[in-house]
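Email to the structure team, subject: Glycosyltransferase involved in cell wall biosynthesis model.

Hi all, the expression group asked for a predicted structure before they design truncation constructs. Nothing fancy, just the tokens so they can compare against earlier work. One-line instruction: predict Glycosyltransferase involved in cell wall biosynthesis, return tokens.
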Amino acid sequence: MLTISLCMIVKNEEKVLARCLDSMNEIADEIIIVDTGSEDRTKEIAKRYTDKIYDFEWIDDFAAARNFAFNKASMEYILWTDADDMLLEKDRQKFLQLKEALSPTIDCVTMNINLTFDQYGKVTHSIRSNRLVKRSCNFKWVGPVHEYLEMGGTIYNSDIGVTHKRVHHDVNRNIRIYEQRLKNNESFSSRDLYYYANELLDHQRHQEAAEYYNKFLDTGKGWFEDNVAACGKLADIHIILNNWDDAMKHNLQSFKYDVPRAEACCRMGFLFLNKNMFKQAAFWYKVATLLEKPTENMGLTNSACWTWLPHLQLCLCYDRLGLHQLAYEHNEIARLYIPDDQRVLYNKQYFEETLKIKNSTDQ
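Reply from the structure team: attached below.
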């Protein structure tokens, strides 16, 4: 059985730290806590789980803090997590099985980070991330903000899900770091440009965000998943700004970097639907239903676009086109995914009554 060092950097995490560490029971053989300046009970709580607690002077550099934590690890593998992450019991059991069976030839294990959930507890947005790495590989973190683990070797894509349940967050922290770097005339990598654009978008600074997404794409050096995402976010910005032609242009641009994703197809359907072009909208929503969801996609995934959303929208399109039987069939497919949704229940009643009247008239 492999041994694992759990490495965390924390600050003012008294509300979530115990929840996270409790979920790691029997997984971590060693817990490394690096505190970057807590003013609450974070370190007091951490002491219940480990005596390996270290202070790190915050220098606006997440990679530096994470590398400091990794350097304290002594087990075969290093697991990193944030305090507002946790393992649900089913995923904890999967992790324990992985710990028993993982081949020592594996250098890195990826896991799904589940970010948001619907009212049924199903994952709506997720992203795949490198989470467990072999210590002897000496992988390093890069980037002061939105840091990433620079790594290679043999990778295993697991089906373990890490549940991200944010309780609090300094919404201005990351953008402050980026803008201080700009004031210092620091050069931005293509990745910096992309993540700074994300921060600008989160702060609803849409024109600036669009400018930096375009700067990022113009470098030609972006990771293809970030390229796809940037095109989608540019399209969404132009929808907000009522620039519908530009929204369509950028959405189509995403096809340059990879085969069409369900997210882009649903967005294309929405763009046509906005113009009451129901036949064209139905085409793109139909394409979305035919795509096979990639199992190893490392980018952000909107599960609705791969499941119920295109069917619900096809229901609307076919209804407007007078194809009520087809509309009913797609509503029923959507109902398989979201059985208690008020929209699908209303549609079910409406189409059953409509088709009953139509059938009796035909007879």
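The chain is about 50% helix and 15% strand. The chain has a mean pLDDT of 94. Ping us if the truncation boundaries need rechecking.
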